[in-house]
Amino acid sequence: MNAVTEAWPVESAPRAADAEPVRVAVAGDADARDWQAWIERHPQATIYHDWAWRGILAKAFGHRPHFLVARRGGRMVGVLPLAQVKTLLFGHSLVSLPFCPYAGPLGEDRETLDALDRHAEALGRELGVDHLEYRSLGESHRGWPSQDLYVVFRKPMSADHEANMNAIPRKQRAMVRKGIKAGLASEVGDLDTFFRLFSDNVHRHGTPAHSRRFFALMLEAFGERADILIVRDAQGVPVSGVLSLYFRDEALPMHAGDDVRARELAANDFKYWELMRRSVDRGYRVFNYGRSKRGTGPFDFKKNWGFEPTPLTYEYRLFRRDAIPQNNPLNPKYRLMIETWRRLPRWLVNAIGPYLVRGLG
Q: Can you tell me the distance from the alpha carbon of 96 to that of 314, in angstroms, rounded to the nearest whole number?
């Protein structure tokens, strides 16, 4: 299946009367190899279904993993990665997956998906969560309450750099060329430099920063499928950085940060062009700009690059809630908190930020 397919259909062939039923269980360490092999084969699987997230989310945030595996007659036929998120500020939920834009259930047929749903609902009730949340790329058959807030931007890349440059709309292309003329240069970077840029950037925007440990765990877990790109100015000073993941033919910039001078130098535009150029040279053919909220600056920035938004389906099975949670910076009740956060000293926000961000994934 093409990597930029917008909606993934679900096979719904009926099960033979004598076929084995689907059985679902919480995966353990012994299932890691089978899980990874299954998602490597499944056309709808993404980097966010990777087994590595099980350890990353538990170690970085303390989120208890409940990765569900479906089998028919001993053969794996479906997966659903879930993590239990429990915080004082943002409640108690079971999410697939926090800090991932989409990691919804995957199955070989409708019976498998239904079995995963039933097990996930039963698990949610058993754990006493407020709600169960699925994050998926594509439409759903469930009819659960949902919200149309997030989109993802993905686009094929040519093997020809000039063709990719010309595919960028004129105004944004001019910004890339401005960065080139300013003497900006890119290099494979280190975590410390990236984290300084990232934490400075999110502080200016009034949101808590992830811990450095989160990024270290990602780099360790994904190995050659992850890297950091740093952009330096003509004097060699770091001004922008991005941490990216790679899956199949897709390059996925995950987290980025910029110095306050990045805008005047067009370093942000230059950074993504350099990431695109380097990814093409490594054989990747899809650029995934990642998730954005509608009505935000990042949404407009990605649209200006000529990328079209694909809606993400965020569904909720509500247990102890009457309405879909709105734990995002667009919620008006967080505006005062955001403005206050911007005024706090850096040492303080870096110290307490990782505790607050746990429920904001």
A: 10
